[in-house]
Amino acid sequence: MDQKFKPTITVFYCINTFFEEVSLPAGGENNYELQTVKLPCSGMVKDVFLLKAFESGADAVVVLVCPEEQCRYVQGSIRARKRVKWVQDLLDEIGLSGRRLSIFNLSPGGRASATEIIRKTLADLDELGPNPAV
Questions:
Q1: In what order do the strands lie in the sheet with 60-65?
Q2: How big is the CA angle at 10 (ends 43 and 114), to the nearest 5 degrees?
Q3: Which of 63, 77, 120, 130 is 20 to 30 A off residue 13, Cα-Cα?
Q4: pLDDT tens profile 37-86
Q5: How many CA atoms lie within 13 A of 99 on its CB side?
């Protein structure tokens, strides 16, 4: 990764996945900025919010949702997955790469999994580089 490139990752997450604010490792080897958006249900993540995150400078966007069979609102995770897929296709179409947007099912309190997701996202950004839209 370019030494001057400090990736910005925006994480949208369901409050039923993390009951408190998401706090993931920062600094040191993980030289990145993390912005979080707490949602009452992942089904409330809209395509315009995802696109706005990229417009605001995010190099990658991650959506953390409850496992589909454990969604408190039954269809929230499914709705979020459909919206993410639509935006991934749009990002591919406009040349930004749909790989910059990802969605993961996470069991409540899955901090170790969330940390691994952020590491994977950073590894992807090593290849993708900074957001070309900003």
A1: 33-39, 8-14, 60-65, 101-105
A2: 80
A3: 130
A4: 998 888 889 999 999 999 999 999 999 988 877 666 668 888 899 999 99
A5: 13
The Cα 74–Cα 78 span in angstroms is 8
Give dist(CA 38, CA 14) in Å, integer.
Answer: 6
Q: Pull the structure tokens for residue 115.
A: 């940390």
Tell me the average pLDDT of the chain: 85
**Structure tokens belonging to residue 79:** 């709705």
User: Which residues is 35 bridged to in the sheet?
Assistant: 10
The set of residues, in sequence order, having a beta carbon less than 8 Å from that of 86 and lying 6+ positions away, is 47
- pTM beyond 0.85: the answer is yes
In this structure, what DSSP letter does residue 103 have?
E
Q: How many C-alpha atoms does 38 have within 13 Å on its Cβ side? A: 9
Query: Where residue 18 falls among pLDDT bands split at 50, 70, 90?
Result: low
Calpha distance 122→129 (Å, rounded): 10
User: Residue 121's pLDDT is what?
Assistant: 94
